[in-house]
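Quick one, probably user error.
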């Protein structure tokens, strides 16, 4: 049996081709090795169609194919569509098999992280008695969202009693991946010698459930706000362009397996190298270049994922809990 499966994992049909390869957009996506490669881009609900080309290297030699036995291994599968392209028998010449998966549900964005990989791919299998002949072709899926209707600004305070009191403000709490973070830092009380201030973008990948939850933090960007001592009443502007960084949309409880969240971390360092933190979660989303009617249902679902975003900031020092004043 020759079969073709459209699969999604997180974590010799000689070739698999798609019909619209010349016109379909390709995008870069990071591999598990950290390299960037280009893949065909698809969206939720799009049809995936093409052909499997089975080429016999020796036309005079028969290729036997039998029933398919598919071992899922230890992967967590959330989408799987299988089509049989040929009945069990023997091939005596090269053949081509067309396939089409109509309006395929692709609910999550492709993602490669520290401890998890969410992967979409086409797999063509010629099942044989001794060993199967398998060819896979990865594709990338992007999830598009509409602009959030409610997008309030973030206003917070951080301070140490009788030593430091600052207020900071970000213009929004939800940003698309090419957006600009605009904000201000107000110094209301300064009695310690601050020499440096920066804002970091932190990605937090969470895997597992219950007592087996594991967090992996990755600092995506460091943006210097100030170099030198501020004075009382001073206001420092923030203008951080997101387009230059490798970001993904916020992903919450994907298939009850993992989450990806982003935080803006305000860091102040005094002359004695003490560090003061204030951290705030923000939601990131992917804005489509062209609004497609076929994306309307997906966009509506994605918009609902913005609901319930916490606006409560938490002051922390890395590696240990911070006291009430956010001082390490």
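Nope, works fine. Designed sequence:
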């Amino acid at each position: 049996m020759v079969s073709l499966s459209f699969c999604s994992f997180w974590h010799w049909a000689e070739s698999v081709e798609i019909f619209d390869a010349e016109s379909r957009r390709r995008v870069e996506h990071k591999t598990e090795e950290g390299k960037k490669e280009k893949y065909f881009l698809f969206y939720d609900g799009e049809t995936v169609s093409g052909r499997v080309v089975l080429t016999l290297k020796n036309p005079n030699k028969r290729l036997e194919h039998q029933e398919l036995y598919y071992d899922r291994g230890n992967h967590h599968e959330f989408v799987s569509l299988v089509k049989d392209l040929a009945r069990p028998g023997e091939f005596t010449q090269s053949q081509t098999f067309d396939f089409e998966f109509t309006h395929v549900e692709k609910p999550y964005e492709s993602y490669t992280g520290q401890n998890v990989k969410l992967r979409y791919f086409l797999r063509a299998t010629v099942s044989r008695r001794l060993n199967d002949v398998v060819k896979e072709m990865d594709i990338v899926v992007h999830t598009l969202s509409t602009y959030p209707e409610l997008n309030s600004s973030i206003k917070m305070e951080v301070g140490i009693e009788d030593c430091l009191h600052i207020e900071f403000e970000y213009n929004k709490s939800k940003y698309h991946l090419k957006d600009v973070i605009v904000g201000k830092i107000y110094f209301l009380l300064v009695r310690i010698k601050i020499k440096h201030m920066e804002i970091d973008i932190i990605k937090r990948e969470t895997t597992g459930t219950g007592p087996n939850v594991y967090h992996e933090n990755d600092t995506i960007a460091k943006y210097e706000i100030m170099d030198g001592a501020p004075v009382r009443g001073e206001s420092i502007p923030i203008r951080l362009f997101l387009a230059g960084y490798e970001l993904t949309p916020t992903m919450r409880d994907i298939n009850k397996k993992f989450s990806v969240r982003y935080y803006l971390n305000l860091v102040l360092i005094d002359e004695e190298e003490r560090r003061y933190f204030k951290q705030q979660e923000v939601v990131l989303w992917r804005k489509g270049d062209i609004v497609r009617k076929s994306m309307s249902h997906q966009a509506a679902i994605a918009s609902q994922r913005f609901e319930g975003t916490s606006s409560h900031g938490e002051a922390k020092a890395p590696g240990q809990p911070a006291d009430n004043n956010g001082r390490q």
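The chain is about 5% helix and 50% strand.
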